[in-house]
Amino acid sequence: MTAEEKTDALARAAARFRGAHKSRIAAVAAGLAAALLLALIALTGSGYTLQFSTDILAAVTLAYGWNLISGFTGYLSFGQVSFYGIGAYATSILVLRAGMPWYFAVCCAGLLGALAALVLGPIMLRLRGILFALGMLGLARILEVVFNNWNYAGASLGLSLPPALTPVSVYAGMALLALLGFLLNAFFAHSGFGLDAMSLNEDETAAVALGVPATRVKVIAFALSALLPAAAGGLVAWNRSYLDPSSAFDPTLDLETIVFVLFGGVGTLWGPLFGATVLMLVAEEFLVYLPHFELALYGLVVIATVLAFPGGIVGIFNRFGYLRRPIILAPAILPAGEPPQKRPPRADEAPVLEVKDLEVRFEGLTALDGVSLALKRGETVAIIGANGAGKTTLFNTIAGFVPPSRGEIRFFGRDVTRLPTFRRAQLGMARSFQIPRSMPMLSVWENVVLPARHGKERQRAVEHTAWVLHVSGLAPMWRDRAGRLPPGHQRQLEFARVLALAPEIAFLDEVMAGMTVEEREVVRAAIRRLPEFGVAAVVLVEHVISAVADLADRMVVLDFGRKIAEDTPQRVLRDPAVVRAYLGEPR
Amino acid sequence: MTEDRPAALAVEGVVAAVGPLKILQDVSLVVNAGEAVAVLGANGAGKTTLLRTIAGLNIPREGTIRLHGEAIEGLPAHRITRAGIGHVPSGRELFPRLSVGDHLELGGRFSLPARRALLRSRVLDMFAVLRERIGQRAGTLSGGEQQMLAIARALMTDPRVLLLDEPSMGLAPKIVLSVFETFPILREQGVAILLAEQSLSLGLAAADRAYVMDHGRIVLSGTAAELASDSRVADTYLGR
Amino acid sequence: MLLLQLLVNGILLGGLYVLIAQSLNLIFGVMGIVNLAHGGFIVLAGLFTYWFATTSGLSPLFVLPLAFVAMGLAGALIERFLVEPLMLRERRADLASLMLTFGLSFVLVQLALNLWGSDFVSVPYLQSSYRFRGLNFDAALSISGVFAAVISASLYVWLNYTLSGKSLLAASQSPTGALSCGIDVGRVRMVAFGIGVGLAAAAGVLVIVVLALAPQSANDFTLLAFVIIALGGLGNYLGVVAASLLLGLAQSVAGYFWGGNAEYVLPYLLLLLVMVARPQRFRQSP
């Protein structure tokens, strides 16, 4: 670095530091102003103002709850009202029948809601997309029927609740819940855990391959997103002084919540707050003139937002550079980075990878038929074969995406045949995808730190990420959004994410498809350097034989799911069986 | 090709991408009426993308595609089909729960009734086995029969140019040859054929001329006889 | 004899369900999206029929063709201007359209609420019943069950025995294959959505003759239809018919022995059961 560049870098760092400082001051000021406003309403507001403010805070709380599972984590729920209802009933019953103080009962209700989500989560969250959304819708209806028939909870007549709470205490309690919602969302927007959750929203399959424990992450997100409506439900019930199944499990509440978040900005920290506040105020003003159009108004807002501005209010702010989510775990300037530290190899170690007699069947079709394979430390093996020969299936099976019907997979002697995919990735079995599966809405840094952070303390993860970005040539664009990268850089990112797992073995699936000769040379050079980066063995799948012939120590040829040859590239390419598989008829 | 009679299909300087990947780089080729031309290349060379781009399933970023002199690039796929390009896509893309007869009917949907009847009898003469299976669902046919049905469906659209994407995939060589035996009949009817094929020997046996693709570019071209004796072709495949 | 009576009622109810489910299935099969406004269309058409029948004194069945055509056109326009842009633009069109139709469903419910209020209403039509070999045939249920079955059967015939119907099936089984036949898949989507919505409206007309309806029942019908598709198999016409009849039977039995709540909650329990036990049910079979 020249002296000039150094001063330049220092100046930029200083500017960024000042910027961060300034935004911190702004945040503190905004927080104080909000607290002041809230206190002022509590002290001087009329009954009406207080009630309306409580309603807004309740809407903000529900919106923040929904945003955790459906915004950040990407599991669209049409039934979060289930937890609202559970919480409302739990609070009421605890106060009425057990004589618990209301604030304690509300806390218990929140925890009960979270607990219910922990139990339901592993079942419901196996469903993806439309199915989860409809499953939650069905759950709310079932609960409504259950409570309609549960005499202990007042059945369809419901419970009437004595006026135990003053409006101000409901208001204060709701303000605290809204604050909790804000803090939980801030945690998602700034933490490694939040990054895991967002990666599920972007591409769950790729996230799992990068070591994200998907089930655990989404169940926790689900539980947190259930806690808020459950606690809020308890407070609102006391505020209304009665509780019945149709108001506790009212689907309109889910509509409102979804409208608020959508309008404010899905999966953002500020979206739920803005959306709920703005729309509540607008509705309050307008519905005086159009008293019976609340549902239609909200419905139209959803339609308009989905069609015309999917990012909501925050999306519009973002376009002008405001309220952007800070890059998670990112340092102010990119450090030089450190390569991963690895234990030196033992002399008596088992092979890096041993695949024995692997068989995979899809609905009667045998995709892999007794394939065996072994890699020692320092080896590079290329797997070749025609379309449909089973190359990608072999990859998917070793990585854990496809369960084998027979055979076993050992990694340094350890049987990993039944291990979940994310555990294999964390152990050091890294794979790339044939079509780059970067997380388009996350930054380059986040794409790389996502796999790099598992099992490391924060500082080491940052250093490791920085090192990966430097060696993969992505350092100049480390803060850019991955979806904006040109195709060549997408490939480099795919490669960088493999390195970020600090793998012992790297599986590269057609990393050179569709590349120009020059681009291929860059990648080939990178593959040659993999041992320097601590990768003990490499498996390549490639259509383009010329691109791998001089990289591989051995070549394995698959044809109709069977291994038909395994030898040095020179000998394999002269094997008549291989030539036939590739060129068709012998000439 | 003469000035007054443009080629049946003329592709010029086509650049195309699938998602973020640029698959075709400046591809040009010509197929004349009544001619069978093969596009050869290893897997991943860009053959399928080339055919999909001509058929309108993928929009080219640059370049022109002309059918008998008329530009068709950028038209929606169903318009391109109706303009006279029949496409036998890779993986066949049949309708598994519709019958053989339904496929033929749908393929001929936009022809006049008399023409449709003529096409149908012609196609069934060509693939006699389909006549026996006329009421059977496509999903229950054997691989070879499915391939024949895919071709038959494309022929029912009364194409002037027929695009065939790896008809040999997953078929025994004997069946492939029986599919290729229909080419001379088609060519007599003035249909131009563009065949994408991974198998070198099959491709060269079926075509008059061929282009060899590698990494989205055309690297060699010539008559089938020339290419069959050219060692560079095999090198492109095996990377020797 | 009691069981036989339940069987008859169940099958008649099932006939109605076939229509409710098949109209959603058509859209799901062709476009891969769930129309969450489905129940909204059913309710809107049903309540309109109520209004028409009570003010004019004419048979509610007169509304059937009108509702089908008018709502069908509305559906086609909704597809063209609201859903189609998402199909072409979004990475996850299924989720985006779910949101969109979710919003739409509330617009429809509000419309129904403002026009006809929130009471549960039913058309006082054919309150008689026929006895045949000791069995009671409720006239309204018989007529609507039979009408629904006839309409569903016509849909089946149209889809399987006409060229335009087969084009629709073709587009749902392989869009690429359909394009290579010269079929305009975009237009097929518009037609499918339009017919789906039109049939939902027809179902609404028949439902109100049998059951009491209110605007807030909209979601129940959407879910009911989805449960039946889930049970019967996506795109599997006969499977959906079987599932409809089965659910109709199960509900009539459950309703008799355990009361209205059991009848109401049964579809949801089945939904959760199917989703949890057999998620692969939801993928389109080849």
The CATH homologous superfamily of the largest domain in chain A: P-loop containing nucleotide triphosphate hydrolases
Report the sheet with the most strands of chain A, covering strand number, pairing sense and barrel closure: 6 strands, mixed
Portion in beta strands of chain A: 5-15%
The geometry of chain A reads as elongated
Q: Approximately how much helix is present in the residues of chain A?
A: 55-70%
User: Any idea how many domains of chain A?
Assistant: 2
CATH architecture of the largest domain in chain A: 3-Layer(aba) Sandwich
Oligomer: heterotrimer
Please report the distance between the alpha carbons of the first and last residues of chain A: 59 Å
Chain pair sharing the greatest interface: A-C, 40 and 39 residues
Describe the structure.
The complex is a heterotrimer of chains A (587), B (240) and C (286). By secondary structure, chain A is an alpha/beta fold. Helices cover 57% and strands 11% of the residues of chain A. Chain B has 240 residues and is of the alpha/beta class. Chain C has 286 residues and is mainly alpha-helical. Chain C has a two-stranded antiparallel ribbon.
Short description:
The complex is a heterotrimer of chains A (587), B (240) and C (286). Chain A has 587 residues and is an alpha/beta fold. Chain A has helices spanning 3-44, 47-72, 81-98, 102-124, 130-148, 167-190, 192-209, 214-240, 245-248, 251-264, 271-286, 294-308, 312-319, 391-399, 421-427, 444-452, 458-471, 487-500, 517-529, 545-548, 569-572, 576-583, and strands spanning 159-160, 242-243, 353-362, 365-375, 380-384, 406-411, 414-415, 429-431, 505-509, 537-541, 554-559, 562-567.
